[in-house]
Amino acid sequence: MEQDFNRVKPYGDTLGDGKTQLSFTLPLPASPEAKEAARRLAAKMGLEEVEVVYMNELGEGFSFFILYGKCPYSIDTTDIAVARVETKAMDFYQVNQFIKEKMSRKITVIGACTGSDAHTVGLDAILNMKGFAGEYGLERYPQINTINLGSQVPNEILIKEAVARRADALLVSQIVTQKEVHIQNLTELVELLEAENLRDRFLLVIGGPRISHELALELGFDAGFGPGTLPTEVAAYLAQTLYEKRN
Amino acid sequence: MEQDFNRVKPYGDTLGDGKTQLSFTLPLPASPEAKEAARRLAAKMGLEEVEVVYMNELGEGFSFFILYGKCPYSIDTTDIAVARVETKAMDFYQVNQFIKEKMSRKITVIGACTGSDAHTVGLDAILNMKGFAGEYGLERYPQINTINLGSQVPNEILIKEAVARRADALLVSQIVTQKEVHIQNLTELVELLEAENLRDRFLLVIGGPRISHELALELGFDAGFGPGTLPTEVAAYLAQTLYEKRN
Amino acid sequence: MSEKLKIDQARVNSCRNAAAQIATGLEDLLHEYTTTSIERTVVRLLGVDGVDQFDVPLANIVVEQIKEKGKLEQGIAYYLGNAALNKGLSLQEVAEGVARDELDLSELSEQPEDKVKDFIEKTALTKINEIAEIREKRFKRQQRLGLGKKPWLYVIVATGNIYEDVKQARAAAKQGADIIAVIRSTAQSLLDYVPYGATTEGFGGTYATQENFRIMREALDEVGDEIGRYIQLVNYCSGLCMPEIAAMGATEGLDMMLNDAIYGILFRDINMNRTFIDQHFSRMINAFAGVIINTGEDNYLTTADAIEAGHTVLASNFINEALAEQAGLMSWQMGLGHAFEIDPNLEDGFLLELAQAQLTRQLFPEANLKYMPPTKYMTANIFKGHLQDGLFNLAAIITGQDIQLLGMLTEAIHTPFLQDRALSIENAHYIFNNAAHFGQEITFNGDGIIQQRAEELLQQSEALLKDIAANGLMDSISRGIFAGISRDKNGGKGYQGVIKRSENYYNPFFRLLREGITSYGTRF
Amino acid sequence: MSEKLKIDQARVNSCRNAAAQIATGLEDLLHEYTTTSIERTVVRLLGVDGVDQFDVPLANIVVEQIKEKGKLEQGIAYYLGNAALNKGLSLQEVAEGVARDELDLSELSEQPEDKVKDFIEKTALTKINEIAEIREKRFKRQQRLGLGKKPWLYVIVATGNIYEDVKQARAAAKQGADIIAVIRSTAQSLLDYVPYGATTEGFGGTYATQENFRIMREALDEVGDEIGRYIQLVNYCSGLCMPEIAAMGATEGLDMMLNDAIYGILFRDINMNRTFIDQHFSRMINAFAGVIINTGEDNYLTTADAIEAGHTVLASNFINEALAEQAGLMSWQMGLGHAFEIDPNLEDGFLLELAQAQLTRQLFPEANLKYMPPTKYMTANIFKGHLQDGLFNLAAIITGQDIQLLGMLTEAIHTPFLQDRALSIENAHYIFNNAAHFGQEITFNGDGIIQQRAEELLQQSEALLKDIAANGLMDSISRGIFAGISRDKNGGKGYQGVIKRSENYYNPFFRLLREGITSYGTRF
Ligand code: B12
Ligand code: B12
Ligand SMILES: Cc1ncc(COP(=O)(O)O)c(C=O)c1O
Ligand SMILES: Cc1ncc(COP(=O)(O)O)c(C=O)c1O
Prior knowledge:
Chain A is an alpha/beta fold. Chain A has helices at 32-44, 92-102, 121-127, 155-164, 181-195, 213-218, 231-246; strands at 19-26, 48-59, 62-70, 107-113, 144-148, 169-173, 203-207, 223-225. Chain A starts with 18 loop residues before the first strand and ends with a helix.
C-alpha cells in the first residue's frame, strides 16, 4: 500500500494501523473499574481497540495508566501549509558581507527575556560572543551592533531602550509557558508598540522552546524561532529582512 | 476542589486539568507541516491546547511525535461496574482443607496453551509444582489432580483429553494476541464445546496478560485471570466455584 | 567506602586554606553591618507575626519605620523592647500599633537600657528554646520513624497551590520519596517581604509563607506516620528575605533549606553585601535549628559548560563549606550541591560525571552531598530523558551521594505531573536497588579517564580558590568568576537594605544562636 | 581488554574437555544417519527450485518419493543424478517430472555409478563455487562499506509482511542499526517444508523463504550503499528445515543465522536425533558460507530462573562451541548467546548480570557473543522497560559484547513499532557512547559479588558439563537438564524423517563443504 497524503494516520508497523500510545493519571485508586474508566476515556477520544496495558496506583487515590489504541482519524496533509522563515541560508561571513554591501550601515538588535522570565541561556546562545553549538553569537558579527538587556525585562523598558538605541530589531526570548504567560507577555509587547505607533519601526522576533514561526505571526510578530535555533539562522533572517524592509 | 466521581478527567498537577500524553509515528518526513499534522490529529481526538513537544525523523519518510494536551472529556465512574472473580481468598492449606471437607473427591483440572500459542510460562506458573512468586502451583495441591498438556494444543485435543480424564475444569492460557488470535482461539473452544453439548460439564477458565474477567465472561467462559495472577487465587476460585456448581 | 580516587591531600589542604582565607575576608562585613531583612528576622523571632490591611507584614512595617528615621543602625530589638516597656504592651501589640500608625518607636522616651535588654533577652530566649524544642521533637520523630535509605529521594512539588502541593507530596511520600521540596513561586526571591497565609496562586511554585510551611509540615508528619518513614521538608532560604525564611523554617520544623552564599548574587542579581550578611545570619539560624542547607552550585552549570566550569562548582563547594563553618553549621548540615549536567552526547561523558561526583564525595566525606539531576540537556523526548535520569541515578549510587534530587523525564516540558514524579521515584528505586553495591564492587583504574579528570578538577579549583583568596571574594565575583556572570559590588537588588551598625548595635540572637549551636551537638 | 575476572584456567580446560567429549559422543549419530531435510537440502543445492501447483516444494516431492520407496538411505543425490543422465534432463526438469507424477526416480535403470557421481559432483561444485563467490562478494562489500562499531546494534522486524519489513528495516538502518533480523512466522519451525516466494501474511513474523531473503538482502544492500555502512541480515536456521534454510541463506548472502544445537529439541519439541543431525549439516553450510550463527541459550532463561540456571547457559555455550567446531565453524562465526534476564527487582541483580556477561566474554574471547535483552521481566510500563534496556546496554558496553540484540520498551506489549525500534537504537547509542570506555576504566574487586558469582557459575557449569559428558548429551536432555524441559530420545516432531544411512550413502556436499571450509580462511 502506498502512502496517501490525503489520509495520513499514525503508523505502528503497518500502513494505516493508526497505532497510538497514551498515558495519563486519573484521580481514582487502581481497580478494574478505574482501568475501565481509562479505557472509556480513550474511547471518547475516538480510539478503537483500546488496550489499557498498564495501571499503577500512585497513592492518595490516583492511578497512572498507559494505553495503546488505534486512531481512526486521518489528516489531509495536502492542505497544510505552515509559514516558515523563508530567507536564504547564509553563514557568518556571508551575513556580514551582505550587510556591508547592501545596507549603508551596521544593523542594531536589542534582545531581552521579558516579563518575569529569567531564562537567559537561550537568548544568550543567540546573542553572546560565544554563541551556540559551535557557532558565534550575534555580538561577534562585526556588522551587527548587539545589545542584550538580559532577564526579567519589562516590555516598557525594552521599548524604551529600543527607541533610545535606535534598534532595528527586537529579539525577545520566552521560555516559561506555564499558564500561557508567554502569550500574555508577547501580546502585551505588540499592543504597547501599536499604542505608541512604533510597531512598524522594528522587526519583531521571538524565540524559545515552545515558539514557532506560525505562533509568532499569529501574535503579530515578524518571525519566530524554536528549539535548536542557530545564531546564523537568526542573523541571516535579520540581514535579509531588514534589507527588504528598507526597499 | 474535591473529586467528583461523576466527572473524572486526567490529572497532571491540578484537579480537572485533563493533562494527557500521547506519542505516535506518522508516515511523514519531519517538517513544520508534519508537526502541524500531528497537532491536528490530536485535536481530532478532542484534545485541547495540544503541544507537539518532540518530533524526530525516523527515516524512510516517517517521523515520531510526542504530544501533550488537555482532554476535555470526563467519565462518569459511578456507573462503571466491572465483573470480577468474587470468591473468597484462601491459602494453600485452606483450599485443600475446603476440597477435602466439602467435596467428596479430589478435583481434576486440565490446562493447555491452545492454538499456535507456545508461551507456557504463564500456565506453568499456575500449574507446575514450583509455582510462581513463591507460591506453589496446583500440581502441589494434594486435593487437585493437575494435568498440563503444554503448548500449542488444538482445541479439539484439549476437549478430548478433558472428557477422557474427567476433568472438572479447563484452564486455557493465551498469550499471543496479535491480530486478535486469542479471541479466535477462545471463541472456537466455546463453540466446539457447545456443539458437543459439553459446555456445562466443565468450569472454563482462561488466563494471560491481556485477559480480564470481563473479557472471559464476554467470550462465554466462567472466569478470566490477568497478569500477575497467583496460583492460590486460581485454586481458591476453582474449589469454591466447583463446590457451588455441584450444589 | 574504599577510596576510589587517589587524591593529593596537600592540594586539598591548600584548597581548604584558601577557602578559610576567603571566609575570613568577609568577617568585617559580617560584623559591621546589618540588613533590613536581619532586623525583620529579629522582629519575627521576638514573636511578632501578621500583616496589616494591605498584606504588608508587621515585621516590614516596624523595621521600615525605624529605617526611615535613620536609626536602624542600632538594631530594631532595642526599639521594640523600649516601646513595650514604655507602653506596657506586648511586642505584638507594639507592632500592631505601629501598623495602625499610632506609634512611632523612635519617638518614645528611652527606658533604662538594661531593663529593655533584659526584657528582650528573655523574650528571645523563649523563642530560642521553642526552636530548640521543635528541633528536638523533629529529631525524635526522625529517630522513631527512621529516615529512608541513602541516597535520599528528593522530589519537588510545584503546582503553585499549597493544597494541590499537599496531595502531590503525600502521594510522593507513599511512592517512596524521602524529601519534599515545595518549589517557590518564581518572583518571590526578589520580594523584599514574605507573603502571608495559605496561598493557592503561585507561579511555577507556591509562595514560601509560614502558614504554607505549617500546612505542609503537618501533612508530611501525617503521611510519615501512615507509612512509617519520616519525610523531610525543604524550602528556599534564599533571596531578599533569606534570614526571615530561616526563622520561619526553624519555627515550623523544616528539615532542609536551599541556602547558598553566592546564588542570589549571581542568579537573582541581589547585592553581594546584602547577600553575604544575610546568608551568615540565616545560616546561624539554620545551624541552630538543625537544618541541612542545600547549596546551589548546580546553577552554575545551567549557564556555564559542565566540563569547562566543573572546577568552579568544586571551588564554590569549598567556599560554601568555609562560610557554613563560619556560621556554625556542622558537616552533616552541609548539603553541598553539584550536578550531572554534562552534554549526554559526549563520548565518555558518564565517566567525567563519575569523576566529579566521586571527587566531591571524597573531598567532603561528612557532608550530606546534594546531587542535582540533568536539566539543561534534557530533551522533550521523555524516553531519552528517563534514561539520562537513570544514568544520573547510577552515578549517585556508585559514588555514594546523600541527597538525590530526582530528575524528571518531562524536565524540558513542564513542572512535574504526578505521574512524572512517580516514574522518577521508580527509576531511582530500580537503579539504587539493582546496582546497590556496584560502587563497592569496582575500582577506578589509576591512570584512567576518571582519575585524570578528578586530578584536573582539583588542580583547577585550587588555582581558582587561591586566586579568589588573593583578590577577595567580592572582587572575584565582580570579575565574573562564577557562571560567567559578573556583578557589581554596589549594584543589584537590596543594597539599600544594608546598614552599617552603630557602636551600640543590639541583636540578642547572634549570641543566643552561637551559644545554642555549640551546645546542642550532633543530630542523633 | 584487561581481564576483569580472575578465572581458574584448569576449570575452563575441564569444561572444554567435557564439551569436546560430549560432541564426540554424537559423532556416530552424525555419520550414520541422514534426514529428509538434509536430503532436501541436497536437492536444493543441486539447483532444484520451485513448488508444484499445491505449493509443495519440489525438494520435498523428490525426497518424499524416494523415501516412500524406502530408498533414502542411499541419499537423494544418486537418484537425481541417475534420472538426469537416464533421461537427458536437467536436475530441475527431473524434479518437475517427479512433481507431475511422470517420473519415478526409484524405478529408472541405474547408470554407471562413476558417471552419475561425476555429474553430480560437477553440479555440486558449481553450487559450492557460487556460494563461495557470494561469500566473497559479501565480505568485499563489508570491507568496502565497513561494519558498525561494536557492539553491533541488532534489531528485529516482525510485521509478517516482507514489504512492510523492508520499510522498517531500511528505516532502522538509517537510524543506526547494524543488523536486521527478520522474525519468522511463529509456526514455521514446525513446518516440514520451506514456503515459497514473497509473502505478506505471517504471524508474529514473516515466513523465511528464499525470495523473502533475496528481497531483504537487496533492500539492505541498497540502504547500506546509501548510508555507507554494511547492514547484516539474519534469519532463522532452525526447526524442521534447518539445513535447507542454511542453504537458502548461503545462496542469498545472509550474514547470520539463528542456529542452535539444542533449541529446537527443548522449545519446539523436535526430535533430538533429527535436530543433532540437521544442525551438524546446517552448520557445515553456515561455516562454508561465512555465516555467523546465533545460538539460543537465552531461551533457557525464559522458562528457568536466570540465577538458578545461569550456569546452564554457560554449559550450553561450551557445548554449542564444541559442536560448532565439529562442523568447521571458526571462532568469529560463533555468536554464542546469553541473556540479561535476572529479575530487575533483585538487589544487586545488575552485578550478577555483569558477572555472567564478563565471564562469558573472557571464556570465549574470539567468539562474536550475542547478548540478548531483558524480556521475561519486561513490563507494560514502557518507561521502566526503557530503563531496563538501558542497564542491559550498559552491561554490554562494560563487558565488551559483540552482537547486541536491542531490547524494546514495548517488549511486554507488542512486536516492535517503528518508533519503539528507533527509541531502542537511540538508547544503545546514548549508553554506548556516554559510557564508551567505562569497561576499561574499572576493575572488579577480587572478592566481590561479581567475582564470586563468576566463580560459582564456572564451577556449576563444570559440574554440569562433566555430568553430561558422563551420561551423553541425549540422555542428559531426556533428564531435563536444560530449561527444566525433558524430551524423549524417540519422541518429538520429525523423528520419522531420520534415516539410517546405507553403506553406499552418497552426498557430495559433506566432502565439498569440509574441504571448502578449511581452505577459505578467515573473513578479512
Ligand atoms: C536552565 C534552567 C533554569 C535556570 C535559568 C538560568 C538562566 N540564566 O537562564 C534557573 C535555574 C535559574 C531556572 C529557574 C526557573 N525555571 Co527553569 N529551566 C532551565 C532548564 C533546565 C534549561 C533551559 C535552557 O537553558 N535551555 C537551553 C537553551 C539553549 O535552549 P532554549 O532556551 O530553548 O533556547 C534555544 C531556542 O529556544 C532559541 N531561542 C530561545 N530564546 C530565543 C530568543 C530569540 C530572539 C531567538 C531568535 C531564539 C531563541 O534559540 C536557543 C538556541 O537554540 C529548563 C528545562 C529544559 N531542559 O529545557 C527549565 C525550565 C524552562 N524552567 C522552568 C521553571 C518552571 C523555572 C522556575 C519558574 C522554577 C521556580 N519556580 O523556581 C524558575 C524561574 C525562573 C524565571 N523567573 O524564569 C520550567 C518551565 C515550565 C514551562 N514550560 O513553563 C522548565 C521547562 C523546567 C521544568 N520542567 O519545570 N531555570
Ligand atoms: C518468554 C517469551 C517467549 C518464549 C516462550 C517460552 C515458553 N515456553 O513460554 C519464546 C522465546 C519461545 C517465545 C516465542 C515467541 N514469542 Co514470546 N514472549 C515471551 C515473553 C518474553 C515473556 C512471556 C512470559 O513468560 N511471561 C511471564 C509469565 C509468568 O507471565 P504471563 O504469561 O502473563 O502469565 C501470568 C498471567 O497472565 C496468568 N496466566 C497466564 N496464563 C494463564 C492461564 C490460566 C488458566 C490462568 C488462570 C492464569 C494464566 O498467570 C501468570 C502468572 O501470573 C513475552 C514478553 C513479555 N515480557 O511479556 C513475549 C511475547 C509474549 N512473545 C511474543 C511473540 C510475538 C512471540 C513469537 C510469535 C515470536 C516469533 N515470531 O518467533 C514466538 C512464538 C511463540 C508461540 N508460538 O507462541 C509477543 C506477543 C505479542 C502479542 N501481544 O501478540 C510478546 C509480547 C513479545 C513481543 N513484544 O513481541 N516467547
Ligand atoms: C540556593 C537557591 N536558592 C534559590 C533557588 C531558586 O529559586 P529563586 O526563584 O528563589 O531564586 C535555587 C535554585 O536552584 C537555589 O539553588
Ligand atoms: C536458535 C533459535 N531458533 C529459533 C528461534 C525462534 O523461532 P522458531 O519459532 O523458529 O522456533 C529462536 C528464538 O529465540 C532461537 O533462539
